[in-house]
Each structure stands twice: as structure tokens, then as C-alpha cells.
């Protein structure tokens, strides 16, 4: 399926401000980039590098005044991977590849080692068959018990906060899911990008769980994980996949996101 995504960030910059961004798409299996664009207005030079997770990153200094960052991508993408039958199995920690191990550790926003998180994980999935069934039980529970509402959380909100308050947005749903899965020793990562099936269009966050030697997508915001996605970045939590990180005096005034499927869905 051919899919297109576009995002426009508008900032008011009050002093020259260094920023790093993660706004260009990943090039990986299941996602073939046809064309893309990255533009800063007024034009300034920027450099690029790849972080430890393989995410393409950009770095520049924004000038004083109104600054607009526009990114566009058109890609051939596969539909969200369906879970095979039989479902992928739980992998013992001793059998995990070395490069997967850090995805079972606690991280800044996902306090998977806390007793309160453990109690909730046991309540939701303690009596469920290890592996896919546990992850899906956690995903379903969050969808049913956490209210989706803008303006109720911020950049300091963690999985523990969401477990207690039961309200948030896609970032918060994802952090809680990651913490609960990691507490059960299931490697889990946060992924951000474009999704075609969103009621309120925005850049989106979901989570991937490592099961049976592969990564599988789960989305607690949706009633059922489905749709087409363009992945921009993945990492342990939001600290690793921030779309824009600034080091200076700038204020985000608006963010406009558009997503479109360019071919009719079969």
C-alpha cells in the first residue's frame, strides 16, 4: 500500500536554539521509502546522524523568529502484521539475542521494576498463557480502562502515573503497556510514526513486543491493532524517540499532521 504522511511544526524562537529532530522515516524491511522531504523555513544548514537504535536524526540551530519545520514522506508499507496461528511464544530471557536485552530493562518513563507495576501486571496477565496472550491482554486492558484525553498529561508523566490516574494520550498508553510487558520479561519498545486509522490525526505512538524471535505491533489506543503505519523511530520510551528536542528558548505554536492512503484499500 502506498501511504503519505506530512507534518508541519511551527515555532516561535526567542534566542538561537539548537535542536535535534527525528522526523525522517526509517528505511527497513516492510517499509520502502519512495520519496521524502525535510525543510526548515527560513533555511538553515543541518547535519544528520544515526542514533544507537538506527533512527535517522537531524541537528541544527533555529534562528530567532517564526520557524517552520516541514517533513513529508511517501512510502510503500505493509498492513500491520497479523498474529500467526499458533501465536508467537514467550522467549526465556536466556534465549534472547544480546541486542534485545535492554528492552526488558526499566527506562525513564517505564518503571517496570516497581512493585505497583508488578501487581498490576499480575492482575491483568498473571494467569494468562505466557507470550502473545499476555501482551494482548495488557493491550486490551489499557484500551478499556485508560481514558484517552488530551491535556491531561505532560512530558514528565510516567507509566506509574498512568497506572494510577488511568488517563492520557497515545504516548501514555504506550508507556504503561511497555512497563507491564517488561515486568513479565517480555522485551518491548516504543515506536512512533504515522497511522492511517486515527480519529484525531496526529503523530502517533504504539508498542512492539518481541515474541518468538520477531517484533509484533500492538496499539492500545485502537480497539483492535490494525491499519497502515510509517515508522519514524523506535527506542526504549519517549526519551529515545522525541520528534524534536530543543536546547534553548523556543515555543511550539502548532503542529499539523496529514496522513493519506494513496491507493484504495483492498
Automatic annotation (TrEMBL):
This is Transglutaminase family protein. Signal peptide: none annotated. It holds the Pfam family Transglut_core. Residues 162-222 form the Transglutaminase-like domain. PANTHER family: BLL5557 PROTEIN (PTHR33490:SF12), BLR5614 PROTEIN-RELATED (PTHR33490). SMART domains: TGc. It comes from the Bacteria. InterPro entries: Papain-like_cys_pep_sf (IPR038765), Transglutaminase-like (IPR002931). It comes from Dyadobacter luteus.
Amino acid at each position: 500500500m502506498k501511504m503519505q504522511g506530512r507534518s508541519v511544526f511551527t515555532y516561535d524562537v526567542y534566542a538561537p536554539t539548537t535542536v535535534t529532530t527525528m522526523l525522517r522515516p526509517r528505511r527497513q524491511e516492510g517499509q520502502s521509502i519512495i520519496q521524502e522531504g525535510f525543510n526548515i523555513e527560513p533555511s538553515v544548514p543541518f547535519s544528520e546522524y544515526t542514533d544507537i537504535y538506527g533512527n535517522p536524526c537531524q541537528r541544527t540551530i533555529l534562528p530567532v523568529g517564526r520557524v517552520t519545520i516541514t517533513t513529508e514522506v511517501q512510502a510503500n508499507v505493509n498492513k500491520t502484521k497479523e498474529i500467526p496461528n499458533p501465536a508467537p511464544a514467550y522467549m526465556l530471557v536466556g534465549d534472547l539475542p544480546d541486542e534485545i536485552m535492554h528492552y526488558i530493562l526499566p527506562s525513564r518513563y517505564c518503571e517496570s521494576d516497581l512493585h505497583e507495576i508488578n501487581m498490576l501486571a499480575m492482575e491483568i496477565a498473571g494467569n494468562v498463557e505466557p507470550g502473545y496472550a499476555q501482551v494482548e491482554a495488557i493491550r486490551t486492558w489499557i484500551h478499556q480502562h485508560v481514558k484517552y484525553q488530551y491535556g491531561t498529561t505532560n512530558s514528565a508523566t510516567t507509566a506509574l502515573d498512568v497506572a494510577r490516574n488511568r488517563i492520557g494520550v497515545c504516548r501514555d498508553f504506550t508507556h504503561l503497556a511497555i512497563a507491564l510487558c517488561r515486568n513479565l520479561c517480555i522485551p518491548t519498545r516504543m515506536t512512533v510514526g504515522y497511522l492511517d486509522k486515527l480519529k484525531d490525526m496526529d503523530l502517533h505512538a504504539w508498542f512492539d513486543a518481541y515474541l518468538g524471535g520477531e517484533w509484533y505491533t500492538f496499539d492500545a489506543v485502537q480497539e483492535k491493532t490494525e491499519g497502515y503505519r510509517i515508522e519514524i523511530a523506535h527506542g526504549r520510551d519517549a526519551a529515545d524517540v522525541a520528534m524534536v528536542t530543543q536546547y534553548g528558548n523556543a515555543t511550539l505554536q502548532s503542529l499539523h499532521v496529514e496522513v493519506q492512503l494513496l491507493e484504495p484499500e483492498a
